[in-house]
Amino acid sequence: MSYSVEPWPGDSAPPRDEVEAIFSREGLAPRAWSNGPGDRYSSHTHSYYKVLYCMEGTITFNVQDEEVELAAGDRLEIPPGTSHSATVGPHGVTCIEAARY
Predict the structure, then answer these.
(1) Exposure string (b/e) for 57-91, b if CB count within 10 Å is 16 or more?
(2) Which of 41, 58, 60, 64 is the most buried (most CB within 10 A)?
(3) Helix (H, G, I), strand (E, B), or coil: what is residue 76?
(4) 93 CB burial (10 A radius; 0-12, 13-18, 19+)
(5) Alpha-carbon span 98 to 88, nearest angstrom
(6) CATH number, domain with residue 79
């Protein structure tokens, strides 16, 4: 299975409570995190589906030899065992993510 990206419908980023409600309806327990400009995550995998919403700023994931830039509102799902890395954009990033087993 491949990763998927779903842009938020509309012109502005979703409110945090709305994203948390989406996770709740999906039975997921989200957590928020932030990083500063240019921070990097080296290539790694997870044993679960990574479900992530970018809430503020930007972050570029490298997944399956493709660059995927996320902006506020974008949702990314990465299947278990999929190698990925990430670089935070020039203004930092705040994301909410959850593990789906």
Answers:
(1) bbbebebeeeebebebbbbbbbbeebebebbbbee
(2) 58
(3) strand
(4) buried
(5) 19
(6) 2.60.120.10
84 and 44 Cβ atoms separated by less than 8 Å:
yes
Q: Are 96 and 26 in contact (CB under 8 A)?
A: no
Q: For the chain, give the longest Cα–Cα distance.
A: 34
3-state secondary structure of 20: helix
> Position of tokens 């503020």?
56
At 98, list the tokens: 């959850």
User: Using one digit for the tens of pLDDT, what is the confidence trace for 38-68?
Assistant: 999 999 999 999 999 999 999 999 999 999 9
Domain count, the chain: 1
24: which DSSP letter? H
Q: Domain range for residue 88?
A: 4-100
Q: Give per-residue pLDDT as tens, 16-45.
A: 999 999 999 999 999 999 999 999 999 999
